[in-house]
Specification:
Helix content is 27%, strand content 28%. By secondary structure, it is of the alpha/beta class. It has three domains: 67 residues, Archaeosine Trna-guanine Transglycosylase, Chain: A, domain 4 (Roll), CATH 2.30.130; 114 residues, RNA methyltransferase domain (HRMD) like (Transcription Regulator spoIIAA, 2-Layer Sandwich); 188 residues, Rossmann fold (3-Layer(aba) Sandwich), CATH 3.40.50.150. α5 packs parallel to α6 and α6 runs parallel beside α7. It is globular, with a radius of gyration of 23 Å. The N and C termini lie far apart (67 Å).
Length: 399
């Protein structure tokens, strides 16, 4: 018997609107033959108080108690996984990503955006990298791998699981990163993105190896870079830097606190432009570096890691964003362009924009908004789950 979760009266309203999360406070009681049947990651059915089936999904310990897989009463078997992965693939085919020699890396599964909450799958050439953010998805990883093989066939040579750092700590699953199928003689591949080339290492890199969500915003940097002196802070592996130089920047400086990151940025510059690229890299804290840059730069990119992982630290995070943007805005050359981002899900578009407005006022500069940016279409937002819109960006012209 699949464990049955019964909701308190009136707590089914968000599910009737097809929101994919059930919070622990909405649960009245759980019925199961054995307590072990509803261990973290177990498949559970959810019922309203009158006993009507409403959804099924993965149970987990914490404030989000169930992540919904389906609002239908259907078996969650191999055929179901094959179907979900096939639909995700069809979306990317529609976006001209699945067979595009100019872009060989993209996100195939984006959690709730693909009705697979707790799962991320990124494609790098012939390797799929899986990252599970829930115990339920981790327990289903072999079925997910099988579905990937079914959908992709011989276009895949390896499937790598990189979930050890993203699973809930308390789940205590003893996860170890490794290949679920196939292997790679090299833990990295050269991939192309809009014709630019990048060396991606999924075993040692951050996230799944590359920040795929900035693809279209990097292309926009390329459009604005001609003849400009560019500063790329929090550069990681130099994605924005490569696009800036490709767009005709006079000079590019990449800054990151990680020495390994700036070394990779330098490698990617050499890969695309040879040994004499007009590029310097600095291993330094970007916030400190921005204290005194003078008026050297007329295109600055601020793409920090998430300052606010959750709402409890939102106040401090917004102060951090304000300070960072004020420093850049006060020193950028007149006629300069600032690309500024927040990837914190807890920060709304409105709050981010208000914070950048405050930074502009502190800097005392005339500022125009040229573009309002978000994540690309292979990071889709489930219309019933607006929280999935995590990436916010502004492109500003500074007089």
């Amino acid at each position: 018997m699949i464990p049955q979760i019964y909701l308190r009266r009136g707590k089914e309203e968000s599910l009737l609107r097809r929101h994919p999360w059930i919070f622990s406070g909405a649960i009245d009681h759980i019925e199961a033959e054995e307590e072990s049947d509803f261990a973290e990651g177990a498949l559970v059915e959810v019922y309203t108080r009158p006993g009507e089936f409403i959804a099924q999904g993965h149970y987990q310990v914490g404030s989000i108690a169930v992540r919904v897989l389906s609002f239908e009463r259907e078996p969650i078997d191999q055929a179901w996984w094959n179907g979900r992965i096939a639909v995700a693939h069809d979306v990317r085919r529609t976006l001209s990503l699945t067979d595009n020699p100019a872009t060989t890396c993209y996100r195939l599964v984006h959690g709730e955006g693909d009705s697979l909450p707790g799962l991320v799958v990124d494609i790098y050439g012939t390797t799929a990298v899986i990252q599970c953010h829930s115990a339920g998805m981790y327990r289903a990883r072999q079925q997910i791998a099988e579905a990937l093989r079914t959908v992709y066939g011989d276009r895949l040579t390896a499937i790598y699981d990189k979930s050890s750092q993203t699973l809930p700590f308390k789940a205590d699953l003893g996860a170890v990163d490794g290949y679920l199928w196939g292997n790679s003689d090299h833990a990295s591949q050269i991939v192309t993105e809009n014709g630019e080339r990048f060396l991606v290492n999924w075993e040692k890199g951050q996230k799944t190896g590359f920040f795929l969500d900035q693809r279209e915003n990097r292309e926009l940097v390329k459009r604005y870079a001609k003849g400009r002196t560019v500063l790329n802070t929090f550069c990681y592996t130099g994605g924005f830097s490569v696009y800036a130089l490709s767009g005709g920047a006079r000079e590019v400086c990449s800054v990151d606190s990680s020495e390994r990151a700036v070394a990779l940025a330098a490698e990617n510059m050499t890969l695309n432009f040879g040994d004499n690229a007009a590029h310097t890299e600095v291993a330094a804290d970007a916030v400190e570096y921005l204290k005194d840059i003078g008026d050297k730069y007329d295109l600055i990119i601020l793409d920090p890691p998430a300052f606010a992982k959750h709402h409890k630290v939102l106040g401090n995070a917004m102060q951090g964003y304000k300070r960072l943007n004020a420093r850049a805005l006060s020193q950028i050359r007149p006629g300069g362009i600032l690309f500024t981002f927040s990837c914190s899900q807890a920060v709304s578009k409105e709050l981010f924009r208000t914070t950048v407005f405050s930074a502009a006022a502190i800097a005392g500069r005339k500022v125009r908004i040229l573009h309002q940016l978000t994540q690309p279409a292979d990071h889709p937002i489930n219309i019933y789950h607006p929280e999935g819109e995590y990436l916010k960006g502004l492109v500003l012209y500074v007089e």
